[in-house]
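To close the chapter, one final illustration. This time we ask the reader to focus less on the individual chains and more on the assembly as a whole: which components sit near each other, and how the overall shape emerges from the parts.
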Amino acid sequence: MGSVTKILHPPEPFLFHESLLRFRVSREEYVNSYADGVYRRVVEDANGDLVLLEAEKEGEGRNSIRLRMTTQGRMTKSAQDVGLYAIKHILAFDLDLRAFYKMAKDDASLAPTAKKFRGLKPIRYPSVFEALVTAITAQQVNLTFAGAIRGRMVKRWGRKLRVDGKMHYAFPRPERLARARVSTFRSMQFSERKAEYVIDVARAALEGRLDENELRILTIDEAVARLTEIRGVGRWTAEQMLFRALGRVEVFPGGDLGVQKVVARYCFGEERVDEKTARMQADRWHPWASLATTYLFAAWRAGIPPASDTD
DNA sequence: TACCAGGTAAAAA
DNA sequence: TTTTTACATGGT
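The assembled structure is written out below.
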């Protein structure tokens, strides 16, 4: 077993804990976990070696991150490089928040949370494939249930890495899910349709239709059009992926129930708005629409009431 | 019991 | 082209 520890210095500002709360561990989720201040996940390098990443805040006050990387055999340079690249992508080191804050400061519904959560970043998935499959599991069911069936899928088809006596799972490879049977997914309480969608996305990945570099250079509309050619990938799923895997913060998943509720709450003082209303609001946040929702979700999670518009 | 969950595809209007 | 409906299941 090989292990190496690095100290990383994310660009300021960066709120580690609040950003990672999204992955606060649930019993069923084995791929991304955040517990006791440590974010954990497994990535795979080009040689197929699994690397466990464990990231936590280094010391109080200072904003450095301690990253421990562990592999089964010798720690290779390739494994280290992949691990470092992955964690910087996941933690959105490349996302510069300054222009967003400049915009947010003059936006009544956004200003208080942007200020309170200064340094909050949208934590990402490492791959297009993982983001799409994860989104599909979350279609039309509550997120607890989505996490449960996803956990079963990961436990069955994800590669395993044992570290300090604890098992960690990588997200299943497309090769594996592409040849899985619908009936096996059914036994894990996937609907038949969800099972077919996941298998179709896995095949698309194998056929090179989810090429990250190709998707990156497309406009949002072009990328959504390309992605929705895959059965089971609608606009919502495509937008989720563009935001959560590729970090395209200008997308706005206006069809998302949670987004509709959080925009309603903090921008309209209501329980729920329709997609059109939500998208109209989001136009004011361009090109940081989904980043804005990240802040509103954080406020919601923290139980912060919407500002009263009467004073 | 009915209805809702961070939707989508296919049928019907 | 726009509007319903089936899909599956756990929680309230």
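Residues 143-157 of chain A form the longest helix (15 residues). The radius of gyration of chain A is 19 Å. With these observations in hand, you are ready for the problems at the end of the chapter.
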